[in-house]
Amino acid sequence: xxxxxxxxxxxxxxxxxxxxxxxxxxxxxxxxxxxxxxxxxxxxxxxxxxxxxxxxxxxxxxxxxxxxxxxxxxxxxxxxxxxxxxxxxxxxxxxxxxxxxxxxxxxxxxxxxxxxxxxxxxxxxxxxxxxxxxxxxxxxxxxxxxxxxxxxxxxxxxxxxxxxxxxxxxxxxxxxxxxxxxxxxxxxxxxxxxxxxxxxxxxxxxxxxxxxxxxxxxxxxxxxxxxxxxxxxxxxxxxxxxxxxxxxxxxxxxxxxxxxxxxxxxxxxxxxxxxxxxxxxxxxxxxxxxxxxxxxxxxxxxxxxxxxxxxxxxxxxxxxxxxxxxxxxxxxxxxxxxxxxxxxxxxxxxxxxxxxxxxxxxxxxxxxxxxxxxxxxxxxxxxxxxxxxxxxxxxxxxxxxxxxxxxxxxxxxxxxxxxxxxxxxxxxxxxxxxxxxxxxxxxxxxxxxxxxxxxxxxxxxxxxxxxxxxxxxxxxxxxxxxxxxx
Length: 486
What we know:
Blueprint: H1 4-25, H2 36-45, H3 54-61, H4 63-76, E1 85-91, E2 94-100, H5 103-122, H6 138-156, E3 162-167, H7 177-183, H8 190-201, H9 220-229, H10 231-240, E4 247-250, E5 253-258, H11 263-276, E6 288-290, E7 295-297, E8 300-304, E9 310-314, H12 316-335, H13 340-357, H14 362-380, H15 385-396, E10 402-406, E11 418-422, E12 432-435, H16 441-451, E13 455-459, H17 468-471, H18 473-477, E14 482-485
């Protein structure tokens, strides 16, 4: 017979098991995957970002009928999986195989994930498991890293710590399917278990998944499995490590901030733990880096200064990729594949995102100079659609003394004049007058973005002794692009 403390512990463990069993049994097919309203809402959710596809439009046209057929198939125990469409996608030069399913099956997987699996795993995963969870994500993981760096500085009073990174090799292809099925075996009734079994075993038809290991990218069930597969290691780090509260996982990328004398021991320990759990590690990316020097996490550069300030900058490779994309899209504009205004909006969205999340202005200057180079090349080449529209506009205003400012991404104006703002389409001009002060450039940026203005015509005010051309010296110092017609 054990001690009172041991018996009390057994009672607590039994109570937890009973509560978990009751929670798992609360999921039944009638209220989740067989509920017509929930299946219908899941089907509508699947249209996001893919409504341009013909298959999605056909599904939405008869969504009530498709939802009814899905419910009938579940009730009759028919096969719900109807094969994959396998294709290759290139992500930053790396080829990945994607396994796509029909939107009807995707709607069912959405209902299963949203109303059964996600509520189940949210009770057991740690709060620093970030990927593919509503309310969390990449921004959440970045803020968690900033918080952990500040916490380390507050506890130790310096920035001499080290951050350990672990990165999995072919993460989804090494998930053990039997482990996922066993972990989900307590959820719901026999109908739900049958659906989970079908979706999990669907990949066994391929010879590279025939050994009971691995899922293919592309479905929501696989995303849920990827979130949960390493959960036991997350709990070990959080509960058994003294610095476990300074750790975060984003799918197969994990970090832990430790002191200098512990880095080698902890790095090798968890590499062995991951590999013993069936997850091969990419040894080149499993490294220890000092936090007082720039290091990369989720394609961003971080560092902790001597004063405890966390500095975040965009990665060099991201800037290089965007420069190459700008030059490639310039050829697309010339060939008529995309419009110039679509080209501008793509550059503008990148610049807005970088200005919003990073403190360093240098990447924006690099991209703006690249765009300036491409812009002048487009104007020199009369074949481009944009050059033809600008020349048409200048010809229309022939005889008037005007200054034409060309918008490239986000338009800044820095001169103290009344201006006539014209809309994107030449045929639909809207007369909007602004009185712009040089000191109010920031507020003007927001206003131009709100109105989606692509170019501006500023007529010279003859009553003013200072000409517009002289006032544009302020604009030239910012490096923006203009064309003058007299």
